[in-house]
Amino acid sequence: MAGVPGRAAALAGAVCALTLLAATGCSSFRSSLKQIGAGVHSTPAKTYTVTAKVTTLTVNTAGSVTVTGTAGSGPVTVTETPTYSKTPPVTAHTVSGTTLTLGYTCKTQLLCSVSYDIKVPRGTAVHAEGREGSVTLTSLSGPVNAKTVTGVITATGLTSPSAVLKSGAGGIDAMFTAPPASVQASTDAGTITIAVPGSDTYQVSARAVVGVTTVKVRHAAASPHVITAHSDLGSVTVTSS
User: Fold this and answer.
1) Number of structural domains, the chain?
2) H helix or E strand, kind and range, residue 99
C-alpha cells in the first residue's frame, strides 16, 4: 500500500489529468484562475450630473440600484460604485432623446458590477434591474418597472400610476401614497407586501402558492385601481398604507 506522500502525488496527478481534459494542463488552469482574478475590490464612488432633459431612466446592473425622486426638472445625479475581482468595469451613460441609459462593460473575471444611486425628477419613468442586488425606489410619481434575479425590491412614497415589480428570489415591499391604476408584483420565492391608500376601492388578485394571502383593502369589481400580486413561495399581503 502506498504511503501518504504517494497517495498525495497520485491525487495531484488525478487532478491534473481531469484538468487536462477540460483545459490544456494544470499550469494553464492556474494561469486561467489568475487571469479571471480573485478577491473583491472597489474603487471610490464617482458622482456626476446629467444636465440634459430626462423623462425616462433605464439601468441594468449586477449590483444594487437606488432611485430617488426629487422636486424640479433636474439635473439627474448619478453615483456609481464599482465592485470587481481584477479589473474595474468601464461605465457609460447615454442620453437618446429624453431617455438616460446607464450601463457598463467588464473584462472576464469572477466578479464585476456597479451599484447605482440615482436622483431623478420625481415624474421620471424608471426601468431598473439589479440582477444580484436590491432595487430601492423612493418618492417617484412616474411609471416604474423594477426587476431582480436575487434581491429585494423596496418602494416607498410612490404616487406612480403604474408599477411592475418582479423578483426571482427576493421579497417585494411597495408603499403607495396615491392610489395606483395598476400594480403587478410577482416573485418565485419571497414575501410580497403592497400598501395603498385605504380611501379608495381596488380590484385585487392576490395568491400565494405556498404561504398566506391577506387582503385588507376595500374591493370593487369595477374599480379603476387594479392590483395583481403572486408569490410561489411566500406570503402575499395587500393592505392600507
Assistant:
1) 2
2) strand 99-105
